[in-house]
């Protein structure tokens, strides 16, 4: 079997994944900002769990960008590259991560009356992103043809243009503020609930599985080595 065919075969892996699992966290004190530093046997804090999801999405967006650029330059890019990236996004990001953000994180801001307009916009962008992903998934099989590929490219660019500032605002404004809105006990409960929902959605060791799936698509398209993005001086 040739190297290319072996790489294409990687795209046949089924969907499964989630965030890294850990044991429930136990913290003391009144506010989460006073909680002790998590140890190896404790749950990752909510922002850490959610930022891992951001990393998955950022890598998927890079797959889209690289694939479309190279296809536009005349390279024959397997449509399965785009389909697989969209499947991962639909299942893990829209189907799990964003629901967790809205129900466990954004709800705390609404309850506290903090950044209500911002979290409303972010939730609306989740819905818009899911619609764009459905369009990308539907168009992916036709991407060897110029017009369908260009139409999908416009949806991809819209997705990228929305999600990069979206992820930045969550990372700089929303996630760090969460710990100041709840007690340490509530903060730990949110972390535990995130893990519980993750297990229900994608099973144990889910993050590693999703990250591996993304890496397999990166390998097919030839961007698994991040050194390819280093500017040539």
Automatic annotation (TrEMBL):
Taxonomy, superkingdom: Bacteria
A Gene Ontology cellular-component term: plasma membrane
Protein's name according to its UniProt entry: Hemerythrin-like domain-containing protein
Pfam families named among the record's database cross-references: Hemerythrin
Coiled-coil positions: none
Organism: Reyranella soli
Domain Hemerythrin-like residue range list: 48-178
CDD domains assigned to the protein according to its UniProt record, in alphabetical order: Hr-like (cd12108)
InterPro entries per the UniProt record, alphabetical: Hemerythrin-like
